[in-house]
C-alpha cells in the first residue's frame, strides 16, 4: 500500500518549502445526541483535532446543545434546513434547487441560521453547508442577505474568482471539503485508504504546485451516523499520523472561515 508514503512525501515537500499544510474536518448530518456522536467528539478530543459539525436545524433535538456545551473545539455549521430532497424527477438530490427560489425559501435559510445561533451561541458560525453538497451559485446573494458569511460544498473552489477569494469586512468565504472516505455508491462502507489518501494527497499537491487555490485548506468530510469500523479506524489513523507536526495544522472552524485570507498556508 503506497498511499501513506505518498502522503508523507507530500507533507515533507510542504515542510521543505517552509510551508504549513493546513487541513480541516467537517462532519455532516448531526441532529441528536447519539453514541456515534459521542464517539466523534471523543475522537476529536483524544487527537486534539477541531471539529466543524454540520447540524440540521429543522431536525435538531434539544439534548444536542447540552452535549456540545463547553466544547470549544467544536464549531457548528448550518446544514440545510430539514435535509429534504426537493429536486425534480430525474434530477440529483438537492434541498434548495434553483427552481425553488422564493421569499419563503429565503426565509427558511435565515430561520435555520437563527435556530442554531439561538441554540449554540458563539459556537454557531453563519456558514451554510448544503445537503448533498449541492447549491447553485444563484443562491449566493440569498445567503448573504440571510446573514451567512460562508459556504462549504465539496471539491476544490475556483482560483481567482467566486466567493472563496473575498477578504475583508463583509466578505463571503467559501471553503470546501475534498476527501470523503465513504463509498456511497458501494454500500456506504469504507472506500479504502488508497482512494481516500489519493484525494487528500492530490489536493495538497495541487495547492502546493499551483493547480488549486493554495489558500483553501484541505477538507476531510465524515458522516458519523453511517461510518463503518474501517472508516472510523482510518480517520483515527490519519489524525495520529498528522497531528503534533510543526508543518501540519488542523484548523478550527473560525480559522477556516477567516475572512482576512489567512486560512491557507
What would you say this structure looks like, in words?
There is one protein chain. The protein has a single domain (3-159, 166-256), classed as Glycoside hydrolase/deacetylase (TIM Barrel), CATH 3.20.20. 35% of the residues lie in helices and 15% in strands. Residues 160-165 have low confidence and may be disordered. It has 265 residues and is an alpha/beta fold. It contains eight helices and ten strands. It starts with a helix and ends in a 9-residue tail after the last helix. The longest helix is centred in the middle third of the chain and has 18 residues, at 103-120. The chain has helices at 3-16, 35-47, 63-68, 103-120, 140-145, 193-209, 229-242, 253-256, and strands at 21-30, 51-55, 74-78, 124-128, 150-151, 173-174, 182-183, 189-190, 218-222, 248-250. The strands form two sheets. Strands 1, 2, 3, 4, 5, 6, 9 and 10 form an eight-stranded parallel beta sheet that branches. Strands 7-8 form a two-stranded antiparallel ribbon.
Summarize the structure.
With 265 residues, the chain is α/β, with parallel strands linked by helices. Helix content is 35%, strand content 15%.
